[in-house]
Amino acid sequence: MSDGGKLGVMENRPNMAPVGAATPSTATSATAPVMPDGAMTTPSNKHLQIKVRNPRDLFSILPYALGYQPEESILVICLREQGGLGMIARTSLVDLEDNKCCVELSKMVAHSAAADNTGRAFVVVYCRATDEFTLHGYKKQAKQFAHALKPIPVETWIINSEVFYRIDCEEHGCCPPGGFPVSDLAETEASAALVYRGYAPSRNRDDYLRLPQPAPGNVEAANLAASRFASEKRRNTAPITWRQKAFITWQNAVELTAQDKAIPPKVLGVLGAALTDTTMRDAVLLSCLPDGAITANEIIENAKAAHQTAADLMARVVGDDELVPIAPDHQLIRNAAIVLEAVAAHATELRQPGPLTLLAFLAWWGGDGTRANARVRQALAITKDYQLASTLAAAIENRLLPGWIRQRGSSGSGASGRGASAPLAVGAASGEAKPAPAQAAA
Fold first, then answer.
1. What is the DSSP letter of 202?
2. Which of 81, 174, 254, 356 has an alpha carbon 20 to 30 Å from 376's alpha carbon atom?
3. How many Cβ atoms sit within 10 Å of the Cβ of residue 49?
């Protein structure tokens, strides 16, 4: 993508529940995952049956899968051999103007698609253009991706501001003259089922990445509370007591979010100050792992003694080949992300790297590469040597997938989430990948 000065970035979204995709009206972040059998689940992980019968149905739910309405982009949508949606990859059209970059990105996506046991794929161009000259260039780019994906069966489509149609329709006779009206995509049973349940994707990618807007006066109240809590740490001769107080505050804030209740700005300020402490930050990170709260408390009480336990848990998140990987509890990380977004939105800039980096980690682990890459960049833009952010940025740069995703690809099974029974979701992400470091402009 073109943001951040990067050339040729592809957002690679393997199929799992993202931290905040399609957003119900009752929450600031949620997900609309799709099951291996084609069912979708709500954030509570209850089955919501959504039938996808044809490309029109598929395209109508893509904004819910991504969390936002794609614009000026190429998307590669993969259907897995075992059934259900697989990887969804997106890149900006402007990045594909360089033919070498287009070729390298298409090869990278093809490699990832094969690793995810893709049985069929769609390459879809989203654009405003309707003139044939501009569309000719986009069709050429789409065909490059289709060529790279061979021998996987691929369909290439255009969705512009007026119509959508299959690029090679003349060979198959599947579209009416001039294509289908784009308004048809808003009138499918699949999308209507999501709208009925309160799901609504963001208008665009920028809205999807935007932190919540604090109410007037709340930032000042949060910053005053943060300053007082930071002063309390400096005066406190027992930092463990200070951290314990902060951790209880964190747990209470997550519980408020789980109950769809507002978090007071003073609480957000306390957490903003608390997350400048790396031990406290690590405890919050561990508390987002299934059964990680006990280790989080141990870290607070004796970081050195609990170091090995914490290291073992993180090895299972990253995916040590000898360990069973830990998959995220998507409801838990959704609630944690809502709290962290609010903390970052109410914090002064120097207090933002902690919550932003934790947001990046949760997004990476949960599969939302768009948010993972954006949040880690924001953290490093404030503090360029922030160690945890630098480590995570390197993982994203090198396209390191969380262990549970790699296991899914290598096993060829449809299992994901908590153990083998948790849902596969539309549109998660492993991070943003570039064709090669040399291709990235500073």
1. B
2. 254
3. 11
d(CA 345, CA 339): 10
282 band by pLDDT with thresholds 50, 70 and 90: very high
Mapping DSSP to helix (H, G, I), strand (E, B) and coil, where does residue 196 land?
helix
Length of the chain, in residues:
442
In DSSP terms, 159 is beta-bridged to 126, 164
Q: Which residue has the tokens 């709500």?
A: 42
Report the alpha-carbon distance of residue 318 to residue 309 in Å, rounded: 15
Q: How far is CA 175 from CA 60, 155, 163, 210, in A?
A: 17, 13, 11, 37
Number of H helices, E strands in the chain: 17, 12
What confidence tens digit (pLDDT) does each residue in 158-199 have? 999 999 999 987 766 788 888 999 999 988 988 888 888 888
Tokens describing residue 266? 């003073």
Residue 109, phi-psi category: left (phi > 0), alpha (psi -120 to 50), beta (remainder): alpha
* Beta-bridge mates of residue 85: 79
Enter the pTM of the model: 0.78
Number of neighbours of residue 235 by Cβ within 10 angstroms = 8
Whether 372 and 396 have beta carbons less than 8 Å apart is answered as yes
Residue 314 · residue 392 · CB < 8 Å? no
Task: State the Cα–Cα distance between residues 153 and 440, nearest whole angstrom.
Answer: 31
Gap between the terminal Cα atoms of the chain: 13
Beta bridge partners of 155: 122
Is the predicted pLDDT of residue 414 greater than 60, yes or no?
Answer: no
